[in-house]
Structure formats: C-alpha cells, structure tokens
Amino acid sequence: MSTPVKVAVTGAAGQIGYSLLFRIASGSLLGPDTPVELRLLEITPALKALEGVVMELDDCAFPLLSAVEIGDDPNAVFDGVNIALLVGARPRTKGMERGDLLEANGAIFKPQGRALNDHAADDVKVLITGNPANTNALIAMSNAPDIPNERFNALTRLDHNRAKAQLAAKLGTSVNAVTQMTIWGNHSATQYPDVFNALVDGENAADAIGDQGWIESTFLPVVQKRGAAIIEARGASSAASAANATVDHMRDWVLGTPEGDWVSMAVPSDGSYGAPEGIITSYPCTTAAGSYEIVQGLELNDFSRAKIDASNAELVEERQAVTALGLI
Ligand SMILES: NC(=O)C1=CN([C@@H]2O[C@H](COP(=O)(O)OP(=O)(O)OC[C@H]3O[C@@H](n4cnc5c(N)ncnc54)[C@H](O)[C@@H]3O)[C@@H](O)[C@H]2O)C=CC1
Ligand SMILES: O=C([O-])CC(=O)C(=O)O
C-alpha cells in the first residue's frame, strides 16, 4: 500500500461532514488502493460531537483509513495536508440567498487560507464547498500567496449533477447518456446550466429537447433554485448530495475525467470566454495527471452569453463586497 494521503475536512461535525467522511474513508475519493489519513477541523464547541463521529468512523473498521486527527486550530489540522475540503460554514436558511452569507462565512476563509499557505503540503489541492463557495474560494486563495492560484477550486459539481439528472428525466434516458454538461458562473441562482453544448446519446441536447420554452421556463429555474427547493422540503440544506458532489469534484481533479467528456469546476478565471480575470467562476474542465484545463472553443449563442455575463457580473460584485470587508 502507498503512503496515506492526508485529507483535511472542515466543518467535519456538520451535516455534509456526516456523509462526506464515510465516503472518503471507504475509498470513494481516491480509489481502493490509496489509504487516507483524515484531518478534521471544527470550532471548539463542536469538538465533542466530532468525537462521536470519529467513534463511528472507528466502528466502520475501514481498511483504508490509516489515522484520524481532530482539532480546532487550522494551523495544526492543515499541517502537511495534500487535499483540503473546506466545507465548514453556516448554511443558509429559508428566504436567504447564498450571497447573504458573505460576511459571516467569508471571515472563516481568510485565516484558513493563511493556515493552508503556511502548513499544507506543496502539492495541496483545495476545494471550497461552504457558501458562497466561489467567493469564499477567492478569499482563501487571496490569503495563500505561496500556493498556486489554480489549486483553489469551488464546488459547482452539485449543480452539474442536478442538471444532468433533470435532462435525463426530461428525455427519459439515463444520466450516463448525458455528457458535456456545463455549469457556467456562480454557485447561486444566476448560474447558467448550458444545454446548447451538452450531448444526449451523442446528439446535441438542446436539439433533442426541441423546446426553448422548457429550457428557459422549467430547466433553468429548477436547476438554479434546486438548493432552495431542498431547504423548503427538508427544512435543511442539501447534505448527502453536496457530499457526493464534493467527492466527485476532487476525485476527478486527482484521478482525471473520462475521454470525450468534461465536468463543471469553479476555477480562477484566466479570461476564457470573456470572464473577468480574478474571479473564481465555473467552467467546463477536463482533468489529467492532477491538473485541470478549461475546455476551449465552445460556441455560445446570445442567450447563453447574456446569462454567463450576468453570473460573472454577480461574482465581480461579491469580490467588491469582500474587498470592502478587508477579506482579500
Ligand atoms: N457548494 C455547494 O454545492 C453546497 C454548499 N453547501 C454549503 O456547505 C456549508 C456546510 O453545510 P452543512 O454541512 O449543511 O452545514 P452545518 O451547519 O451542518 O455544518 C457546518 C459545520 O461547520 C462548522 N464550522 C463553522 N465555522 C467553522 C470554522 N471556522 N472552522 C471549521 N468548522 C466550522 C460548524 O460548527 C458546523 O459543524 C454551508 O455553507 C452550505 O451552505 C451546502 C450544500 C451544497
Ligand atoms: O442551497 C443551499 O443553500 C445549499 C446549496 O448550496 C445547494 O444545495 O446548492
């Protein structure tokens, strides 16, 4: 067996943590041949609950789980970590938009960015799930000048998976038939799920749907507002599906995407497709050998262009807000 990979998870005693840790320890993240060491960060009052979760991890007797360490000091917990999954943040409740969490949650990511900068392994990859995910990732990245920017991603894979599921249901096919789906922009209600560049059984998805009205009035709002619909139904924000998407994103980043397909990842903009540089925005990406590339050369019609520009404009506003708060 190889040396254990050190995986940090913040907010480990929370809802998402309760699904995520067991998936990581069972081998879903890095495969059946890679042992993992978990480094779990929580705020001090949640450490007792976290001890209970660790007891449950012990009771699973996972063959791949080599060690678990917990703590409330990011400088200690992030020491030598190769992967950091930053989940810990307050979730929104009914009636809130994710951006309403900027001030409260943004403050968490500045010290965590610094701690990663000072203590993580040289190869660290950082994925931000805690909302508002794109701008929290920008805060963490901006406070970690020694870590290359492209090692900071934010999660839009849940939106990507939701879009695939809605499309497959509409066309009465399997999710496996849906490829080349893209979420553009912010993980917020302005995100743009793009069916014009997606394929269903190899055919253009928009052509297969053949109904612009359904795309605009049903598909887009259902995907954009799915998080709110889950809060309405469950009384709490999505957790198991968010943990699943977090695993999907990091697994693909480390292990690679399949030939002929891509995934949605919020990554630092390099100006591709006219996105302003210096924001973290969702793009179609392929990955290989632990690195991602933004898929180039896709055609965007005027409808798509306007939606993507609006979502990126929202990210610029969020960046201005956190700049004014002194977080970046
Ligand atoms: N990007 C996405 O697709 C999704 C993002 N989310 C977001 O993920 C975040 C976590 O959601 P849940 O697990 O449901 O929330 P939760 O409230 O159940 O758990 C959050 C945990 O984070 C901990 N925490 C707070 N401050 C911390 C800090 N400074 N360091 C370490 N831990 C800290 C809390 O003590 C709590 O245990 C929320 O911001 C939520 O909105 C949720 C679903 C999807
Ligand atoms: O909607 C929320 O607040 C939680 C979340 O990000 C999602 O489910 O997409």
What key phrases describe this protein's structure?
328 residues; alpha/beta; 14 strands; binds 1,4-dihydronicotinamide adenine dinucleotide; binds oxaloacetate ion; Lactate/malate_DH_C
What does the model show?
The protein is α/β, with parallel strands linked by helices and 328 residues long. The chain is 42% helix and 19% strand. It is built from 11 helices and 14 strands. It has helices at residues 15-26, 47-60, 74-77, 102-119, 133-142, 157-171, 205-209, 212-224, 226-234, 240-255, 302-324; strands spanning 5-10, 36-41, 65-71, 83-86, 125-128, 152-154, 178-179, 182-184, 192-194, 199-200, 203-204, 263-268, 280-288, 291-294. The strands form 4 sheets. A 6-stranded parallel sheet has the order 3-2-1-4-5-6. A 3-stranded antiparallel sheet has the order 7-10-11. Strands 12-13-14 form a 3-stranded antiparallel sheet. The radius of gyration is 19 Å and the shape is globular. It starts with a strand and ends with a helix. 1,4-dihydronicotinamide adenine dinucleotide is lined by residues 10-11, 13-17, 41-43, 46, 87-92, 105, 108, 129-131, 133, 155, 158, 187, 237-239, 242, 245. Residues 91-92, 98, 131, 158, 227-228, 230, 237-238, 242 line the site of oxaloacetate ion. Residues 156-322 form the Lactate/malate dehydrogenase C-terminal domain. Substrate binds at residues 92, 98, 131, 162. It comes from Microlunatus ginsengisoli. Keywords: NAD, Oxidoreductase, Tricarboxylic acid cycle.
